[in-house]
Specification:
The protein is α+β, with helices and mostly antiparallel strands. The protein has three helices and nine strands. Strands 1, 2, 3, 4, 5, 6, 7, 8 and 9 form a nine-stranded mixed beta sheet that branches. Strand 8 and strand 9 (about 195) form a beta hairpin.
């Protein structure tokens, strides 16, 4: 089998610890007075590793962290500003101006804090890519030889790591890190003139 595709995606954004992002977000949200307007900011990042195998090719890609920010405010209308680079934080105050003299007529709510990293028993990130490819090949061979009526097999594996950080000027400070892994197996079988898959 030939390897059809091997990609490494890179992100130009320099990595920051979540503590540094917390400090940046806290400073920004505190500068928007909740008595005058609502403000929140979200950081979102995703890393993906994917492998697929068919009879004619093996495709796999590894992406480093792709990240972005969205800041928004409500001052009679919703305004939003999205950016990828961290230096965009400096532009928020220009893009989302502050309201003044609104008084105390805006309803406020109590913020809450949450910081959770879901840790799997076996972290896919710690398994070498070569081992994952080997396992996909083993599954492929097992399914292909399971029944002589199976004429084609496709295996798709994906592993996704998502991190989100959300702050608002009501005191919410939320972070979650979620690893996910999934695999799909599609055998195509033929008996006589009938072709089907599952």
């Amino acid at each position: 089998f030939r390897i059809k595709k091997f990609k490494f995606w890179r992100n130009s954004m320099s990595e920051k610890s979540y503590e540094e992002i917390f400090a940046d977000f806290e400073e920004i949200t505190n500068s928007y007075d909740r008595k005058n307007q609502y403000f929140d900011i979200l950081y979102d990042s995703t890393s993906v590793t994917s492998i697929s195998k068919t009879p004619s090719s093996e495709d796999f890609s590894v992406s480093t962290k792709k990240s972005g920010y969205v800041a928004r405010t409500f001052n009679d209308i919703w305004e939003e500003f999205a950016f990828k680079q961290r230096d965009g934080l400096k532009l928020i105050k220009d893009k989302l101006p502050k309201a003044i003299n609104k008084g105390d007529n805006i309803a406020t709510y109590e913020g809450w804090k949450f910081n959770k990293v879901v840790t799997p028993k076996i972290d896919p990130a710690n398994i070498p890519l070569e081992d994952k490819i080997k396992k996909i090949r083993e599954i492929y061979d097992y399914v292909k030889s399971y029944d002589k009526r199976i004429i084609q097999v496709r295996i798709i594996y994906a592993e996704i790591l998502t991190e989100r950080i959300f702050f608002n000027n009501e005191g919410c400070q939320l972070r979650q890190v979620l690893p996910r892994a999934r695999i799909g197996v599609t055998p195509i079988a033929k008996e006589g003139s009938v072709v089907d898959y599952d």
